[in-house]
Amino acid sequence: MKNNFQILVILLLTFFVSCKKTEKVLVDDPQQGSITIAADESFRSVSEALTQRYMALNPKTNINLLIKKEDLAFLDLLENKVRVIVMSRELSDEEKQAYKNKIDMDLVPAKFAADAVVFVVSKNSVRESISIGEIDKELNSENKNIIFDGTNSSNLNFVAQKLNKKPSELKFSIINGNRNIIDEINKHPEKIGAISLNTISRPYDKESQDLRNSIKIIPVIQNQKPVMPELANIRNMNYPFTRFLYFITNEAYYGLGNGLIRFSCQQLGQIVVQKEGLQPYYIFKREVQMR
Question: Can you list the domains of the chain with their CATH numbers?
Answer without folding.
Answer: 26-113+244-280 (3.40.190.10), 114-242 (3.40.190.10)
